[in-house]
Amino acid sequence: MSQIVLFFFLTVWTLGLSAQTPIAINEKSTTRHGPEKGSLLIIGGGTVGTEIWARFVELAGGKEKARIVVVTAAAGDSAAVSPTHLESIRKQSGVSRVTLLHTKDLTEANSDAFIAPLKEATGVYFIGGRQWRIADSYLNTRTHQAFFEVLNRGGVIAGSSAGASIQGSFLWRGDTKGADILVGDHTQGLGFLKNSAIDQHLLKRNRQFDLIDFIRQSPQLIGIGLDESTAIVVQQDQLEVLGKSYVAVYDYQTIVGKGEPHVRDQQEQVTASNGGFILLGQGQRYDLRERKVIK
Questions:
Q1: Strands 193-199 and 238-243
Q2: Judging by beta carbons within 10 Å of its beta carbon (0-12, 13-18, 19+), is residue 22 exposed, middle or buried?
Q3: Does the reported pTM lie above 0.85?
């Protein structure tokens, strides 16, 4: 990627941030990236396996206690009247108390009646589609604040595909003209994973190199790329990988070759070496604050 293109990207990002001021939340958080309380479940799209659904239900309090709110904005207006998404999540999770949340009206997103289901929610699930639609519906609203309150009560926020990317602070592939535009006309995510940019469908769509130059130019951010049928659970500043494929972590020091060598049992790990990114598989854990694999 040329420096001219990178300059354009970063200029658009700066303009986007100045136009979309984040709401004042979690200012006293002691964590660098993850939530101080509660959990994030960030899924790379594709088929969501039983082990990922089981973790979601566990983090939401179990089948009997869980109260799930499903956010369908990413799928467009048709999702407001279709029962498909609710029926699918009830079936996959085994949770009976599942409520739809859908609007593109900012006035409604700021109303007491609209956020009422979130007051009782133990889990939130963002379905896939286009991540900019979620931003248009909820960014910097009282609903946005209510999502954070679910975390503050110890709940879980989950999402797949677009529902993964929206959880970052920088909105990657957020352009209304198409997902091939990496930095576009929407640049602010909901920020559940602070100081981050999140990609999805990583290996399936050959996207594994797309975040490298961006993170090289944005060392304060961490990049997370998730392949399909693969997820991370983030609690405070640690993540754990679930699922069938791999998660890539993009850290500035790793990209420029100055990061700590990642070893296990005194041997260099192929999945955790200096280079453009670190690949992590099922069961591996990573310290987001220290920027290193947990051995």
A1: unpaired
A2: middle
A3: yes
